[in-house]
Amino acid sequence: MVRSPESLIKENKIGYGWKQVNFSAHQEIKELIKEIIEKNGSIGRMTNQVKNYFELKSEDIVIVPLGKKIAIAKVIGTKNYDPLFKGGHGANQIDVKFFRKDGKVIYIPRSKLKENLESRLKLRTTIGDLTRFSQEIDHIIQNLNELGNFDIKSSFQEKIDQYENEFKTELLNALWKGNTRLKAGGRGLEELVKELLEIEGYSNVDILDKKNGEGIADVDIQATSEKNPFLKDILVQVKHHRGETSKHAINQLIAYEFESDSNAYKWVVTTGHVSQESKLYAQENQINIMEGEQLVDWIYTNLSALKISTKEALGIVDVPKLSWL
Question: One digit per residue, pLDDT tens: the chain, 325 residues?
């Protein structure tokens, strides 16, 4: 699994972060990790993710999650480095070949996947090992055209994409402007993130009291899971912003120490956006970033599981729409 920027799909590429390091300049993983540590000071829990991505080779299969659907590609293997890439965390790129029909990328709804694989794709990491699902993935590849009509650029599917994009844009604007019935003061957004984490399998999700760390250290949500071994503990700083979310949110998480598991994933979730400089700073300190557009994607992916009261608070109405009107 590679959470690659969607903009790279049309170029038959996947991308990963670490913008300050050129993966393609290295032949051995040890050399790459050494440079990351030299430039960053540490690599922390990212070691396995970097290793798994760097060691992708020709004929390997990659799944790219995209909201409520996935795309599948076969690795060609040529590595590229684009430090000026602006489409997200994707400076270190690898050439792949996405499975297509009539020249158009085939997208598979997550609903067509078996429960265990679909749950695995919810893991909040950028790179994930799907080896244990190889038989299921091979079966999917062999039966792509039998899973449904995936001519993604058909007029019907184009309408679906149009409505999805319009919905996400309207929802993000509503969150920016405060045109929802979520509780004020950021509490409503925290409760929304809590619910999304519970939907994804976290058995213990707590909104913490304010000022819960020393100095600037602060965490809004702590999530752990006893039922799903794939779900790593998560610490979240939630920001309800319309504009830019500054480095302060990142520094709050850097300063926070999680006693039960020092390897917990740390996330800044914001309705706003984060500058490229701050994203690089976050990456250097093993902090994950979820901006407004990614947040509404996350909401949309789990829309059917949201509480009715939550949908009402967001202004979401479940009404069928005819595509030709």
Answer: 999 988 899 899 999 988 888 999 999 999 999 988 888 777 767 788 899 999 999 999 999 998 788 899 999 989 999 988 877 778 899 999 999 888 888 888 888 888 888 888 877 778 888 999 998 899 888 887 655 444 444 556 667 778 888 899 999 999 998 899 999 888 999 999 999 999 988 889 999 987 766 788 889 999 988 776 667 789 999 999 988 999 999 999 998 876 554 568 899 999 999 987 888 888 888 898 999 988 998 999 889 899 999 999 999 988 777 765 5
What sign has the CA pseudo-torsion 284, 34, 121, 17? Answer: positive
What are the start-end ranges of the H helices in the chain?
A: 29-40, 47-54, 115-120, 134-142, 155-177, 187-199, 247-254, 276-284, 292-301, 308-314
Instruction: Provide the phi-psi class of 10: left if phi over 0, else alpha when psi is between -120 and 50, else beta.
Output: alpha
pTM for the model stands at 0.66
Identify each DSSP E strand in 210-286 by its residue range. Answer: 221-224, 234-239, 265-270
